[in-house]
Each structure stands twice: as structure tokens, then as C-alpha cells.
Amino acid sequence: MFRKLLTNDPDQIARAIFDAFGEYDLSFPRRQHRVDAGIVIAPDEPVAISVSWFGTATRQVFSEQQRELYGFTTCLRGQGSMTQHGMDLAWKKGVTLPLQPLGPLRLETDAAFKCRDVVFDKAMLHDFYERWSGRPLDKQALVFDLAPFDGYLAAKWAQAMHVLGPSGGGCDLPPLAKATFAEYLMALLLECHPHSRRTLFSRPAPRRAVRDAVRYIEDNARHALSIGEVAQASGCSIRSLQIGFRCDLGTTPHAYLAKVRMALAKNDLERGEGAATVADVAYELGFRHLGRFSSEFRSRFGEYPSEVLRKNRARVNKPRDRV
Predict the structure, then answer these.
(1) 197 close to 136: Cβ distance less than 8 angstroms
(2) Which one of 93, 240, 312, 323 has the fewest CB atoms closer than 10 angstroms to its CB?
(3) CA separation (Å) from 296 to 98, 252, 255, 263, 292?
């Protein structure tokens, strides 16, 4: 649930941020009076999100206390700078920079600066990395490059914030959708922004694992099946399986599963008996959107599933010639 605070006192905004993310050194070197300050924050979600502005220039120093958090901050207006490990990075509208547990970090912003913070718990991000890569981090923190998001990631990030964030027409999501969306954001970061373990994260599955996954999909396509289950059965991570499918088969595990199920649907319609309908066949194979199923079926086989079923029934009900 988003909480909103508008005030003339930047100290109130500072306290709201401290309550959500922990205290750090924050000062106002050229403090103005009667400022326009505010914050919109959702601190209790799977990913903490806030949009804040102080209405006055700030100097912020993060230290050891923030080592358990990864932040990704987007400048929405104004400008600022970030300094870490001797690197100075400029901030301007539309630029997103990582704030991560690497030791002292200094931020300076002007009075117009407004930003969106997306903050992940370190344990959650590390757990997600290990599940997707199939490799332990061995107590070594992920380190994201101190660089702005590139154009592709910046666009995808902005689209995501439009859905989940507290500005730009964002909307609330139910709990399960929020958790899934949090994983989507972490996948974007791990796949698209350079980090210390990206080479391992992007390694394709061996061809043997891809063959095992194909066999597992074909043997179990009539049952409820997740890509995580397929990856586990083939002995590799979800991410490496996805890359292996693209390298060896030119498709994804999910698309291959849909292809197998579509072929089974055609076979069932051609052999169907009794009062079975197109909807019965589609739902049994996991296709929940009947209109999309019919459209994709026609695109793949050149005719609608209802036409296949009609031909089958006409063949079955055709009277036999008398001898």
C-alpha cells in the first residue's frame, strides 16, 4: 500500500526514508525555508518503492548500515551526482543508477531533484540469482557495474514502474502478482545490467540437458508444468535452459511446450469422440484463453480447431455404403 506525505519540512521526508530503509548521513547544505517536499512510498512490498523530493539541495552519505540493501534510483527531474570508489557519475532526468552494498557512497542533489528508488533486500536478490543460475554465491555479494541503465533496460524499467510504481498511472496489484513482478524486476537487472556474475548467469545449458528437457516436456505436456520443473528435471538452471533452447532449437522452453500442446490438441480434435468440444480440448491442455488458442491454432495449422472437429464428426457420422 502506498503512503503519501506532502510537507514544507524536508526533515519529515528524511524521517520517512529512515523509517523505511535505515538511517544514513543526510544534510541540507543550502537549506531553503518553506520548501515543497514530499514522498510517496510503499515500504512493505516485496520490493520497496518510493518517489521523493526534498525541495532543497542535499548531501547524502551511505555507509555500512545499508549493506543489506540494493537500490536503483531514477532521476525524475533536476540533477545530481554520485561518488563511489573514486568514480563520479552525473545524474539527470531519466538516468537510473545502482546504489549497492559496496562501502561508502556519496550523493549530492540540487533543489529540483526528484527521484524514484526501487530497493531490494540483499538476501532476496541473492536467493533469486542462485535459483535462476543454479550456482551459489558463496557469501560473495553481487556487484552491479556503477553505470547508468542502457537504453533498452531504461525503457523496460520505465514500463515496469508504470504498472507497479506510485506515479505515471501506476496501479496496485494483488499479492501474488506483486511477488511475481518483483522477480520480473530482478530478472531484468540480472539479464540486462552488467554485474560481477553475469558470465555465469548467461551460460547455456549443455545439449544433453536441452535434450532431456525436450523429452520431459513431451512426456508431461498433458499435465500442469512449469519451466522451473523442467529445468530441475534436466539438471540445470532456468536461465541456462532458456539460453540453451535458444542456441540449440531457436525457441524458448515455454514456446516449445506450447508447440507440443498445440500438436496434441490437433490430434485430440482429429480423434475426438462423443460430445467433446473445442473448449474441452483446449482447457485440458492448459489453454485458458479460447480466442487466442483458436487464432494460434489456425496460424499453425491453416484452419480453425472448430473446423478440424467438424470434419472429424462428419467422418465419424458418415453412413457406410451398403454391401
Answers:
(1) no
(2) 323
(3) 41, 17, 12, 11, 6
Of 6, 77, 61, nearest in space to 29 by CA: 61
pTM, two decimals, is 0.64
Other Cβ atoms within 10 Å of 230 Cβ, number: 23
Largest CA distance in the chain: 104
**What is the C-alpha to C-alpha distance for residues 283 and 256, in angstroms, rounded to an integer?**
18
- What does the pLDDT average to over 293-320? 84
Question: From CA 88, how far away is CA 72, in angstroms rounded?
Answer: 16
Q: Distance from CA of residue 145 to its chain's centroid?
A: 19
CA distance 221 to 196: 37
Residue 141: band (very low, low, confident or very high) from pLDDT cuts 50, 70, 90: confident
CA gap 188, 168 in Å, rounded? 20
Please name the residue that has the C-alpha cell 512493505.
44
